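Sample entry (148 residues):
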Amino acid sequence: MRIVLDTNIVVYAEGVGDKVRCLRAREVIAVLPVENVLIPIQVLGELHRVLTRKAGWKPAEAKKALIGWTDAFATLDTTRPAMESALDLATDHGFQIWDALILAISAEYRCRLLLSEDMQNGFTWRGVTVVNPFKERKHPLLKAAIGE
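Predicted structure, serialized as tokens:
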């Protein structure tokens, strides 16, 4: 099962945010099968922005973190069809455009699970289900992904 990480998950994994979510993000990522985890390039751009603007990291520190993510996991490029689908998601379902783009990219690359705190838990679109890994009760797809 292909699994996509949303920006908030990698931000927490970098230690930015409340301690409980940071720990949980790291725990979840640690047990995911590395070969199935994918990160949209869009997420890396958002991560850089959060690290440098909100968390006050120096650009060189943020760059090192982003390279670490690209060394650890495969990345997904943004395409024109994904952007067109994102516009439909934003129009039809009220998504913010950048969240919609991450979901559209996930669908384009035939991913099954999108881990995100920002989108509606359990929302499924074109075969991709959004799952909030911080919910107390784990979604069945997350359980399957981590081998529970």
